[in-house]
């Protein structure tokens, strides 16, 4: 693409529209800790924010796991699903690591089986842009247009911006998901670990609260005193173990 064609595309899209789309996408995913939930939110926001797009889908390939799929319209979810075969615009984008466009599926011959299904569902065009998430996950975001409203150069630029921004946001979601899982594993080990477990039991008895809440109390005390968690636990256990003076 040369500069003479890129400038009109940017003017058509509009800086304010672009900023609003990416801002909404960031706000929608910034606190999500589940990857599948993030994909669902991503396709919903993209479908609602981009004029002329009838559906947005996402195809995700995760190492050692089945392919993940999200679609803003459940009726079109099968178009992002690989169970019908890998020959699709999304897989072409993932394999080639470049944006794939098909503005008129009535004239398309690259994915005959997929195209027949898509046209039967009322889809007239598609744009698939590859998304790099991390070392374990790659995918493609798919914008679908109806037969009466063809996708344009504006939609191609939108897909490119979405793919770049979504890759960063989804990587952050994956990182939060891992950290949450690790924290859960750590909590489980701490709950049953020696003096820390004893201290948690003391707090549960004193406050009548569940173990996770007691662990939070212990952590808060360690942070306030700026001493290790185990030392706070030891002090608490020693304190309650001392015989009371008569």
UniProtKB/TrEMBL annotation:
Pfam assignment, any one: GAF_2
Domain of life: Bacteria
UniProt keyword Nucleus present: no
Alphabetic keyword roster: Transcription, Transcription regulation
ANTAR domain mapped to chain residues: 176-237
Protein name, per record: GAF and ANTAR domain-containing protein
Organism in which the protein naturally occurs: Micromonospora mangrovi
